[in-house]
Write a structure and sequence with these properties.
This protein has 257 residues and is an alpha/beta fold. Helices cover 19% and strands 26% of the residues. Strand 1 and strand 2 form a beta hairpin.
């Protein structure tokens, strides 16, 4: 098993997981952690238990949602531990972002080319996990999440630290005019985050657009860490939906100690 840590402070524990290790076979070979990709559920559960053992915890100290590329945000507590971890049936449905003030609870985000975003609000001792696919990105899920934390949880944006995890990089992310038209509907000018190609398609800078939303909320640039890993280029380490639509899912996760 290979985990990529994000550790700006001793108060938090955060990782992006690679596909290395695990019990899944076939298209999902390795450490697939999603029940929603056609993998054997028993293998998925064994993979999740393997992860919990590796981190010296258990599945009741983790929580996962059923992501739908929405912009909906959910506040969770330790009482929600285990939801979505043993099966798909009891997961919180239609939420792509979570946050908590409770310690010892991992928030999980599933991704395979989409952009995971992990948040630590140091002043309020609060963490968040965001799943930002291209739809969530252009619908401003990161901006909406951080705005909620500032307005409702009194987080100081200058005390917010963010990790933009492994996902598809700009030079590999080719999109059509439908995505560009959606970008034009955003609440701010985002033209610098795409570039036209000769074939009529466009290159889309998803990580850069997430960073822009953080900056617009007042998060300091020096508090933002952007992973250089690309899920397509580094397909030996990560599942990539664009590389193989029947693939498994990577996970990024965060907890407060």
């Amino acid at each position: 098993m290979k985990l990529i840590p994000w550790s700006p402070f001793s108060q938090i524990e955060a990782y992006s997981l690679t596909r290395k290790g695990g019990f899944s076979k076939g298209d999902c070979e390795g450490l697939n952690l999603s029940f929603n990709v056609g993998d054997d559920p028993e293998c998925v559960l064994k993979n999740r238990q393997l992860l919990a053992d590796y981190l010296h915890t258990d599945l009741n100290h983790m929580v996962a949602t059923r992501q739908t590329h929405s912009t909906r945000l959910l506040k969770v507590t330790k009482e929600d531990g285990g939801r979505g971890m043993y099966s798909f049936d009891d997961a919180f449905y239609n939420y792509d972002a979570m946050y908590t003030r409770d310690k010892d609870l991992y928030l999980l985000s599933f991704h395979a080319d989409c952009t995971p975003v992990l948040i630590y609000a140091k002043d309020q001792e609060l963490i968040a996990s965001i799943h930002s696919g291209w739809k969530g990105n252009v619908n401003e899920i990161t901006l909406k999440t951080i705005t909620h934390l500032i307005e409702n949880e009194h987080c100081d944006p200058k005390e917010i630290y963010a990790y933009i995890g492994p996902s598809i990089n700009y030079e590999r992310f080719e999109v059509g005019i439908d995505v560009i038209e959606s970008i034009h509907q955003m609440s701010f000018d985002a033209h610098e985050y795409y570039q036209a190609k000769e074939n009529g398609k466009y290159l889309f800078n998803a990580k850069g657009l997430v960073e822009k939303q953080l900056l617009l909320c007042g998060v300091l640039k020096e508090h933002i860490t952007i992973s250089e890993y690309c899920t397509i280029k580094d397909n030996d380490l990560f599942f990539s939906y664009r590389k193989n639509k029947k693939c498994g899912r990577n996970v990024s996760m965060i907890k407060m100690k």
